[in-house]
Every structure is written in C-alpha cells, then in structure tokens.
C-alpha cells in the first residue's frame, strides 16, 4: 500500500510538465511523469508549492507533534517552562506576532528578550503570492485593522486569480514565481539585529500585512523620527520664497480637494506672525498648528507628484505636533479642523495615526456637532455657515474615499444628511454680510471640490446599491438593470459637467487636469460593471464594457504619469492595481478563444502601461515592485498565447 503522503496533491503543475505542456498529476513529493522519466521533479526543491493533504495524514502529523512536544517537555530543565521558538512561530496568530515574546537566555538570569526569527524561520511568515494578498496589502495602507468588505474588491481579486487558470494548459492555478529575486526587494540584512528588522524596506516585502507589520507605510521614511522632536527655531523659517511656494501648492492642490482652511484668514495670520513673531497670533497653538500643517501637507503632496525626499515634510509635521494638544483646546470646531488636517496629511504620508481611525474620529465629531442637519445652520452668519459646511463635506468625502477602499460601512449615512453643500465661491466672497448665491456665476476654485463631492456621492450610491447583498437579493433582473443604468447615467452627467475652465495654476495638480476626470469616470465605471452582489455573473456585453472601462482608466492614468501630474500615493496605487485586475479579468474570462481575444494586442499594450506605472510607484512603495513582476508574468503568458495563435 502506498504511503499516505503520496495522496497529497500540489495546486499547480511541476515546472517540467508545465514547460513540456503535458498534463501533470501533481502528486507529491514528485509527480509520476518525472518519476517515470527518472528525472528530478521541481516539487522536491520548490518550497513555495501549495498542496492539499488528506485529513487523516494531517491528524497523524498533529499526533506526532503532540507526542514530540511532550517528550521535549520532559527533557527541559526544571527552571521553568519556556515555549519552543519554532512552536511559538507556528502557533502565534497574526495579532500576537506584533507583540514581544520572551524566551530564556542561556547566559542570563531568566531575562526576557524580544523574539526575533532566524533566517530559516522567515519562510514560515510568508504565504503564496497572489492578487488577493497584494490587494490586502494595498488596502491596509489606510489602516492597521483587518476587515475588508465587498467594495474593496477582495472577492473580485479572488475571482480574477481563479480565472487566470485559463492561462495554464492543464487549467491549474496560475502561480507567480521569482518575485523576490531583485536585490532591492530583499536587501542583505542582519536578521538578528533589531535595527535591521525595523527597516521599512524589509517589511515592505512581506506578503501578509498582519504577520509582522500592521501598516506598510508606518515609518516608511528611514530618517523619520518615531516621535515628534523639537527642532531649533533657526532651522525652520517662515520668511522664504520656498515657504510661499509650498503654501501656494497647498491651496492649489489640497484645498481644492478638501477646503478645510479659509485662505484669506490664513494669509492674514501668516502676515501677522511674519511681522511680529511675538504677537498674540504667533503664540496661538491653533494658528501655529495650521501654519505648520499647511506646510507639511503642501510639501508631502508635492513630493507625491515629484517623488522627492520627504524629510522636509516630516520636519513640518513634527513642528505642527508640538502645538497639537494646545490646538485641541480652542473648541469643537477647531478640534475637528485639527483632526481633518491630519487626515489630509495621512493620504500622502502615514507617519502619524492611521487614516481609518482619524476619519472615523472626525466623522463622529461632525455628527455629534449636528453638522449633518440643516437646522444646525439656521441663524448662523453666512461666512460661519459656509466654513462649517466645507468642514462637514470634507469629512464626508474623506469617509467615502477610505470606506470604499476598505469595503467598510460609512461613518456618515447619506439618509441622515439633509444639509445643502457649500457654494462655489471664492474665499474672499464669503462674508457675514454677503450672499454666497449672488456670486454663483463668478469663476471659483471651489467649483472643483464641489464637483468632486458629487463624484463621492455617486460612488457612495454605487457602494450601497451594487455591493449590498441585502438590497440586491430582492431585486428582479429588470430592477437590477435599472439600477445600473441610472448609476451609469449619473457618471456620464458628472463627466460632462466638469468645471470649465479649470483653475489655471503653474503647479502640477492632478485634479486640475482633465485626464484626472476621465480616469475617475472610467475607474468608477469599472467598479459599477465588475462582478458584484448586484451582478454576480456577467453577460458578454458587460464583460466588454468592463474591459473598455479598465483599458481607458489605465490609459488616462498613464497620460497623467507622462505629463508628470500624477500623485504617487497609496490611494492611486490601489486604484491602478484595481484597474489592472479588472483588465486581466475581463480579458481572460471572455468566452471566445483567448488567443483570438488577445490578437489585437490592446490588452497586452495596456498591461505594459501598468508595468511602467508600477515600476515608477515602486520607488516609494516596495510592494509595487512585486505587483509589477506579477503583471509581467501575465503579460508574457499573453504574448506567448498570441504567438501560438499565429502559428
């Protein structure tokens, strides 16, 4: 009778069978084809093979391990029980991995030291690479928590991974290999050194975001201090043309996304502080926090476009944190502004608290102040009402961006909001005695965030209507088509009604470029047409619509990249990855012969564009380098199939 372990089966073919395009029985420890040919099977040497084993065999192993543990325990010295390091590593769950565990020091009096894995144990921390794991890593850029919902695309990533079986002759799982071969991905580090284990380039390469590091971007700058440090006054001067340039970039870029600060007020405060550093405004914690956060956000936003050094932004951020607690004491509205400025900063640079926590805090503060209800604004001066609406709808937009990325419930419910949005007027046109509606025909930069707000509302409705299992279950086919058609029309109207002309600025601001609106239109269209609870199975026409939307979104973001006006932040990395998944799925799942589908080479061309984008993003995000190599392997397989089709 054959031993039980021969019943184990690998999930993919061995390399020899795959290369020879022969059917592999995938039995372990080596396949019968290689065994019969008396050649070495790749299963014998490849430690990345994923396999299934009979339950009885696994239980027998568990019994053996239990028996050996008892035997080992009896051989331990009586000084105290200390878990074996390898057993610890295998039994710790993901949350425990973030805690310090102790073991006995042979040369010390029972002193606990932090547990550090040996190089031999490191493979145990890693899982098989897949689109699902990469999506988790990218999504968790916003958070250290674990739940990913339907709108995050996690289920879609799993579906895409399954569809890729069509690329293998034996329809086995498509496996990604040699992803960690580049020197910059796994540098030569001393794994027994605490400082080397803290280096972000190491943790950026882990496939599982929970195992060793909760958020890939926490402390990604090697020179960034772990805690706010006090900087000498003479090293940070507000009297420079460079500071003026950062302020201009902030109000051209971040202010037209989230209008948190009144421009005219800010300029007056800055003038007072520059004229007299000892004046009352200069001593105000809130004013100081605003000034330094504007510089920090302006600097990090600019760095996201130019991919330049972040140390200056970190310096400004740490300077702002010196005034953080004092700024919170200026009342609830000031505290809300302080929190939202940190959210704005975290979209580009996550050295501070994670974005998910901050957005939730800001949303609950706004709801607690009644900023979602129109009755709260009755009797308020026009300027006060306008500023509060800008704050409220800023946190609303932030909530939509982060919650949709993670597939989590919104902190602010649309049904609870009955206040009208802010108006598209210049900051200097909003006054206690002025009527904001009277200036509605005057061109204003505020038309941009107002239009982006409409996009967030459409995205919110896509999430609640398309990705809700409860709502979708009760709808007929006709009702589902009506929902999708209505949302598609709203996206069309949004794209057609974009602000024109866009504000003219010398700065490379992504959302002041028409390609940004095209990119977001097609990106949300792909979100609408990919498999979802509303349409779990796609018709051929929907597959083609998804392919078109994915292709066009990739081409538009590639245009922005070549025009040097793309923000290389984690949100765009996630968006590009999602668009790439949509393209791969829509291309591979089409019922026609795959070689004929690939014949026009459009899909291959688009994938090559994403490879270029991921290569650029890998400068800041190490995980983008691995995604690039995964996409390269699919592109190579597509090209091979095209050549086979020609032959």
TrEMBL record:
GO BP terms, alphabetized: DNA-templated transcription; positive regulation of transcription by RNA polymerase II
Domain (Zn(2)-C6 fungal-type): residue spans on this chain: 13-43
SUPFAM superfamilies tied to this protein: Zn2/Cys6 DNA-binding domain
InterPro entries according to UniProt: XnlR_reg_dom (IPR007219), Yeast_MetPath_Reg (IPR052202), Zn2-C6_fun-type_DNA-bd_sf (IPR036864), Zn2Cys6_DnaBD (IPR001138)
Keyword Transcription attributed: yes
Cell compartments where the protein resides: Nucleus
PANTHER family: ZN(II)2CYS6 TRANSCRIPTION FACTOR (EUROFUNG) (PTHR47782:SF12), ZN(II)2CYS6 TRANSCRIPTION FACTOR (EUROFUNG)-RELATED (PTHR47782)
Protein name stated in the entry: Fungal-specific transcription factor domain-containing protein
Organism: Colletotrichum godetiae
């Amino acid at each position: 009778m054959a031993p039980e372990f021969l019943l184990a089966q690998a999930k993919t073919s061995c390399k020899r069978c795959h290369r020879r395009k022969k059917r592999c029985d995938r039995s372990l420890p080596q396949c019968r084809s290689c065994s019969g040919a008396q050649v070495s099977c790749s299963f014998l040497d490849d430690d990345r093979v994923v396999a299934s084993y009979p339950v009885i065999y696994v239980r027998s192993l568990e019994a053996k391990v239990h028996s050996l543990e008892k035997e080992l325990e009896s051989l331990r010295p009586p000084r105290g029980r200390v878990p074996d390091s390898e057993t610890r590593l295998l039994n710790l769950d993901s949350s425990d991995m973030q805690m310090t565990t102790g073991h006995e020091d042979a040369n010390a009096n029972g002193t606990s030291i932090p547990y550090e894995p040996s190089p031999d144990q490191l493979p145990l921390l890693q899982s098989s690479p897949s689109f699902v794991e990469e999506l988790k890593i990218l999504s968790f850029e916003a958070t250290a928590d674990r739940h990913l919902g339907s709108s995050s695309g996690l289920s879609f990533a799993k579906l895409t991974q399954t569809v890729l079986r069509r690329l293998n002759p034996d329809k086995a799982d498509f496996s990604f290999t040699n992803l960690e071969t580049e020197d910059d991905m796994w540098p030569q580090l001393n794994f027994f050194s605490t400082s080397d284990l803290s280096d972000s380039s190491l943790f950026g390469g882990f496939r599982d975001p929970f195992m060793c590091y909760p958020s890939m971007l926490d402390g990604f700058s090697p020179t960034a201090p772990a805690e706010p440090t006090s900087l000498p006054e003479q090293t940070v001067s507000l009297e420079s043309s460079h500071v003026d340039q950062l302020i201009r970039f902030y109000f051209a870029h971040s202010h037209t996304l989230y209008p948190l600060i009144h421009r005219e007020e800010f300029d007056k405060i800055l003038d007072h502080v520059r004229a007299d550093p000892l004046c009352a405004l200069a001593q105000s914690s809130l004013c100081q926090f605003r000034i330094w956060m504007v510089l920090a956000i302006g600097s990090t936003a600019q760095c996201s476009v130019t991919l330049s050094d972040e140390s200056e932004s970190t310096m400004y951020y740490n300077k702002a944190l010196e005034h953080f607690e004092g700024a919170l004491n200026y009342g609830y509205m000031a505290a809300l502004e302080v929190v939202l400025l940190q959210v704005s900063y975290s979209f580009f640079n996550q050295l501070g608290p994670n974005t998910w926590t901050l957005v939730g805090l800001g949303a609950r503060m706004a709801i607690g102040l009644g900023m979602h209800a129109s009755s709260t604004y009755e009797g308020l001066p026009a300027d006060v009402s306008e500023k509060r609406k800008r704050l409220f709808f800023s946190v609303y937009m932030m909530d939509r961006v982060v919650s949709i990325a993670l597939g989590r419930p919104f902190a602010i419910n649309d049904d609870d909001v009955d206040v009208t949005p802010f108006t598209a007027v210049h900051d200097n046109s909003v006054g206690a005695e002025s009527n904001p509606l009277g200036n509605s025909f005057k061109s204003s930069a505020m038309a941009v965030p107002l239009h982006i707000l409409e996009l967030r509302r459409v995205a919110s409705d896509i999430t609640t209507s398309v990705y809700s299992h409860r709502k979708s279950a009760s709808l007929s086919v006709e009702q589902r088509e009506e929902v999708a058609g209505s949302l598609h029309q709203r996206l069309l109207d949004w794209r057609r009604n974009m602000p024109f002309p866009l504000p003219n600025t010398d700065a490379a601001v992504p959302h002041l470029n028409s390609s940004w609106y095209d990119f977001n239109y097609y990106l949300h269209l792909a979100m609408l047409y990919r498999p979802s609870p509303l349409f779990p199975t796609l018709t051929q026409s929907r597959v083609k619509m998804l392919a078109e939307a994915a292709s066009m979104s990739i081409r538009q973001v590639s245009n922005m990249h070549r025009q040097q006006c793309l923000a290389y932040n984690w949100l765009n990395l996630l968006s590009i990855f999602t668009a790439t998944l949509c393209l791969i799925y829509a291309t591979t799942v089409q019922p026609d012969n795959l070689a004929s589908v690939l014949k026009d080479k459009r899909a291959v061309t688009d994938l090559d564009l994403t490879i270029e984008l991921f290569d650029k993003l890998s400068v800041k995000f190490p995980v983008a380098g691995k995604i690039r190599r995964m996409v390269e392997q699919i592109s190579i397989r597509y090209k091979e199939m095209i050549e086979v089709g020609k032959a």
